[in-house]
Amino acid sequence: MNTTSMTLYYSPGACSLAPHILLEETGADYRLVEVSVAKGQTQEDEFLKINPKGRVPVLAIGSRTLTEVPAICWYIGAAGKGLIPADALLRAGVLEWFNWLSGTLHAVAFGGKWRPQRFVKDTALFGDVQARADDNLRDGFAYIEARMVERQWAVGDEYSVVDPYLFVFYNWARKIGVDVAQAYPAWHAHARRIAARDAVRRACDREGLR
């Protein structure tokens, strides 16, 4: 893995936090470029030339770019350090988590909650979309809790590329007012283990997250 010319385009607290943490975990040589979602910078022409999807994260490796959290996290994890399991079934478990987290929990549930305009044009229906998104979020959080009961990490017995991604959604759950510690204690305990890691603290400090 070429670690001499990587650039991570990120927005503070966005899903780009997951690859940011993994870059710190692997000790990669990289630089950060902030592209604020809140300020609309992902929709500016300069960034759209880098990623026409208008989304973070983007990982630039020399003249090539990767988009989408699962792909970027897999690439970083391939550097070694045990972040991708050697066992084929456990690797499939990583992909299982990635597909569900990105395609369902993020795109459908949080997407409906925060960006109902992606689902319907009629603003009068936004409330209905958001109400259904709340149902989907509750179902998603309950699923995570059930998977994490009596587990230390998401896949197998070791910390992997999935765990920082779960940490992103933990933070988002708290952002929308969920008392995760009370409602989902196993997931909360998992997040506390992640938050205690030096790489996670460094990434959160650099993004101004507390």
Description of the molecule:
The protein is an alpha+beta fold. It has two domains: 6-82 and 201-206, Glutaredoxin (3-Layer(aba) Sandwich); 88-197, Glutathione S-transferase Yfyf (Class Pi), Chain A, domain 2 (Up-down Bundle), CATH 1.20.1050. It has nine helices and four strands, in the order E-H-E-H-E-E-H-H-H-H-H-H-H. A four-stranded mixed beta sheet has the order 2-1-3-4, covered by helices on one side. Strand 3 (58-61) and strand 4 form a beta hairpin. Helix 1 packs parallel to helix 3 (69-77), helix 4 (88-114) packs antiparallel against helix 5 and helix 4 runs parallel beside helix 6 (162-175). The longest helix is centred in the middle third of the chain and has 27 residues, at 88-114. It is globular, with a radius of gyration of 17 Å. The chain starts with 5 loop residues before the first strand and ends with a helix. The mean pLDDT is 96.
Defining key terms:
single chain, about 210 residues, alpha+beta, Glutaredoxin, Glutathione S-transferase Yfyf (Class Pi), Chain A, domain 2, 2 domains, four-stranded mixed sheet
